[in-house]
Specification:
This protein has 170 residues and is mostly helical. It has 4 helices and 2 strands, in the order ααααββ. A two-stranded antiparallel sheet has the order 1-2. Helix 3 packs antiparallel against helix 4. It is elongated.
Amino acid sequence: MARLLDAFHRWLLYLGAVFMVATLVAILLGVAGRQFGFSIPGLDAYAGYSVAAALFLALPATLRNGDHIRVTLVLNRLTGTARKILEYWCLLAASGIAVYLAYYAVRLVWISHVTDDVSPASDATPLWIPQLAMAIGCVGLAMAFLEDLLRKVAARERVVEQPSELVRVE
C-alpha cells in the first residue's frame, strides 16, 4: 500500500510540474501578446489556475519528501515520553486539519459542478475544473498525513525520499 501511495504522490508531483510549465507558457503568451498586439481572453485566469494547481498537487510529495516547514523549536527541547506525545499530537492535529480541508475542497468542486458556477473572468470557465486540482491535492495531502500517523502508531520509521538516496527519519 505504501508503494501505491508513493507512486500516487509522485504522479501528483509530476502533474504539478506540468502546471508550472503551463503557468510559464501562459505568462509568456501574455507578454508576447502585449508586444505583438494580440490578446487571448482569460489568459491571466488560466495562469492563476495553473499556479494553484501546481501548488496543491505538489503538497503530498513535499510532505513525503520532508520539505514542509516544521517548527521544531519546542520539539527539539523535549525528550522521551513528552516528545512522543507531542509528535503524536502534531500528526493527529495535522491529519485532522488535512482531512477537513480535503472534505471541503471536494465538496466545493461538487457544489460548483452542480450549480454550474463559472469564472467571473472573461474566460467563463466552469469553476469545478480548476478546483479539481485543488481537491485532488488536498486528498493526497490528507492521505500522506494519515499514512505518517499510521506509521507512527505502528512504530515504523518513516522513510523520506531524497533526490539521490533514501534517508531514514525517526
